[in-house]
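Worked Example 4.2. Read the sequence first, then its structure tokens.
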Amino acid sequence: MSKILSARDLGFLLYEWLDVESLTERERFKEHSRETFDSFLQVSEQLATRKFAPHNAANDQNEPQFDGEKVTLIPEVKEALDAFAETGMVVATMDEEAGGMQLPSCVQRACFMWFQAANIGTASYPLLTTAAANLLDAHASEELRETFLPPIAEGRYSGIMCLSEPDVGSSLGDVTTRGVRQDDGSYRVFGTKMWISGGEHDLNENIVALVLARYEGGPQGVRGLSLYLVPKYLVNPDGSLGERNAITLVGVNHKMGWRGTVNTVLQFGDDKRQPGGRPGAVGYLVGEEGGGLAAMFHMMNDARIGVGAGAAALGYTAYLHALEYARERTQGRSRNSKPNDPMVPIIEHADVRRMLLASKSYVEGAVALVLYAARVLDDEATAATPEERAQATLLLDVLTPMVKHWPSQYGMVANDHAIQVHGGYGYTREFPVEQFFRDQRLNPIHEGTTGIQGRDLLGRKVAMQDGAGLTLLLSKIRDTTSRAAGSHPQWASSLDALCERFETVTRELHGVGDPDVTQANSTVYLEALGHTVVAWLWLDMALATEGKDGDFYEGKRLAAQYFFAYELPKVPPMLDLLATKSRMLVDLDDRVL
């Protein structure tokens, strides 16, 4: 059995729960079948096992090297990414005309989690490239798509996202990097970008930077932002590479995890290597002037779901390592044992079982949440009617903050449990769970911190269209509870009661009329709704196991039982707190901290 991910679990989620085979009845996916889906999944497992997992520790121990001009990575990274590109997975979900395979998003997401679980550092490069390709396909001009998408699809170009600046983290309205329009219709981009994953390396021919910058003459705030494609090397009309663009690698950041992913500071504009420098980095407008943030959200939301998937994958592989260790490691004896009796595997101890069962409920619930969201994305693109597609968009908007946050938060708890199960050994570098934990710790931060996801959910997503998004989500939960009323009445009743409370509490928090109070309570709201959504998915999965025997299905039902017994009861006290509309965090005097 693999310790990277569970092929059996992915099969259950895709075929027995989400019914992805039914997608092949839709025009976009008619050339596919369960056989083609299984082929992609099997190739992903094999490639992740042979090419990604073996250098995960080496990637962590041998960080990218910066010699003052260029960055060098261990050779295994390029070997793995070249093999990945050969599968066509970089743009697997895109149109065949654009070099894609029109693979459903939920299948692609399941495939890619194999690589994220095997080696999150190496997997980050195609994660960003895929998100960049999807953005260009949706928002770029035909000329830009024709120039840049084919080499991206072939793995010759990679893509990166440039948002933050040294003095501007997530406050994008304060971005100072600027784009200046030229007479030929191109732009010159000036400014410094920080925390840029994949910003410089020798893995492929070219790097396509998608840069958020302020357009000349535009208003202050986010309405003055445009999006520019700025390639590392300029591209000639015949597709060959031209001269190096005015992008300077200023430095490399060193993180506690994801050490295999080079993280950079990039200077756009002054090329320090050329006498006199070049006046600005050549860039090309993507979309409309002033529409930069809206276009960039296409990539950001893609990346946020990708981060949630990576968090679920890291938690899952840690759980599988801990499970195997607990079955093999002997220590202690049962309460009725005699002193000379052999020691027992630690999985027989109740607290170890607690940690393993909790971890199982977290990581399998997290993967379910990610794949459910990806299945909704398929509906957004291919559902039969415009109304159904609009409903999918609305539901996905509400789910995305939770898909990013919940696996990041509770995948990390599973990583913590994995170290605890290993005991002192888990805290050493001789066992991989130590690295898994460090890698996981980044996920609550990047692509929008927990606080940002909370503000997005409570401040915007559940309130949009007069609360239509929350109403839709709660209706989905109630659809499941109505089906479960006979077989799981207590679980269904608990969720129904929480749905009513969320309607009331959400209305009251927005009824305060003070955005500061709403914002101050948003993280607790995110936590409460995320836990409720995962409980709903566990109930729905439990229904999918009905009438099925075997250890796998019993394990699913036991994990659902754990979540409802140990985790869902945490939600009502959070709602009690939210109902007070607390001003504590608004009114406190920070001098007392």
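Now turn to a second chain, presented in exactly the same format:
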Amino acid sequence: MVIKGIGASPGIAIGKILVLENTEMIIEKRENSDVEKELVKLSDAVEISKAELQNVKEKVKNELGEEESEIFGAHLLVLDDPEFIGEAENKIKNESVNAEYALDSVKEMFVSIFESMDNDYMRERAADIKDVTNRVLRHILGIKVVDLSSLDEEVILVANDLTPSDTAVMDKSKVLGFLTNIGGRTSHTAIMARTLEIAAIVGLNDITEKANDGEFVIFDGDKGEVIINPTQLEIDLYTEKKKAFEIDKKSLELLKGKQSITIDGRVVELAGNIGTPNDVEGLIKNDAEGVGLYRTEFLYMDSNELPSEEVQFEAYRAVLEGMNGKPIVIRTLDIGGDKKLSYFEMDEEMNPFLGYRAIRLCLDRTDIFKTQLRALYRASMFGKLRIMFPMISSLEELLSAKKVCEDVKHELEKEGVAYSDDVEIGMMIEIPSAAVISDILAKHVDFFSIGTNDLIQYTCAVDRMNQKISYLYNQFNPAVLRLIRLVIKNAHAEGKWVGMCGESAGDQKMIPILLGFGLDEFSMSPISILRARRLINSVSKSDMEKLSEDILALSTAEEIESYMDNFIANR
């Protein structure tokens, strides 16, 4: 069976399927005369969950350290609390109800109590109760629970989609590839696959229905082709493709230590996008010249509570020290939209991508914002830090964010806490209003970084996660390209540099256009860096300026993409 999807991360994957079911838990109240049976059901599920959590705790302790493993220690304490489990047992005995209903009712009661407390620490324990209870409930209901942190063998994950928490906890050494029903090249799954250098295909629509656990599958993450239960001939063909891919990958090693420079001497910076300090290894391996985007939201997502100033400081310091003085752009908290925190209550919104998120949330919750900025400024003593604000739409927002930075610096000075006075402040250009007034904004920042993932969807009014209209989400849309050129021109007029941290920065068909526009820094998934350098080293800036003018004379995205297909093919 051959299925076509969207190639999201390059590589050839060959292996067995593991399907991740996204089964909704339906809890219904049922009267039950067999009380003993329900008590045993609850007890068995609790014991299985304890064993799982103990294994995960030990694994995390060995790989990441004692502090990180304590999240799972907290979960074990919940299951060992006689008041919590005892309350569920009493409910089964006294009300003759089914085990899952009894446990879910107790969970809701305890969560409500903890969330109403004045103490921040106690309020945050509500998230632990939710997480661990849901684990037990899945066992009671017979829903398959796949622990991605302790996989027994190498697998290719098949899912409707992968959540940020899925990718945060998975054992990367055991995952050969991702195949998902939904998503595009800029979805979280695609971005994380490239960051982790794992082959992936997204937008397969119904791969979870067509694939079964244990079946053999092969796929090409570049072309977007999946073959389930391949013939021996197909296996042999893809094994050869895999060898060729690895040979090409090795040839790129020769570019390490070389400048990212065009034939006629235009030097640019090739940086990488990362989500955790652990990703620094991939940047060094791929000879990144810096970090163009550190997505700090994963620090918040991979936690059961808001990370403390100290936890954040250690993470930021690790990245700054790990990159040995190379510039590091760290984006302030960008949650909301499709990025939620289990322990942070957010109202349901009609249009969450246009709602309470990113800098809007931070300017409203300055307590959260200041904690992060304090950690950032303290870490600035350990490397070349650049702070970047997401989702700025007006000068007022930018000035307000800068004011909070100044307040934090004054606080640190009063406390005698050291920080660097050489921290650049920048902002993302991902909203059309910011691009249009980039001449004004450029006077108040040290740099811009263009986030094409959101700039495209906001400019074209296209939800990038909506499969039905994904054909309208196109980086070659003339309106998008004109906005990019405008931003670069306005920034350069003020003597400011411009980077790009959206996925377009690493696209072989976009790089020549961006060179022609004068982009200074290209930040991409680490896996794309050496391929980008090979392309940049093979062209001249003057030729790319002419190419970019030709591109802007075209009328449609289709014409532009076709032009670039021909350019790449004929090089």
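Notes for the reader: The chain has a mean pLDDT of 90. The CA atoms of residues 102 and 228 lie 42 Å apart.
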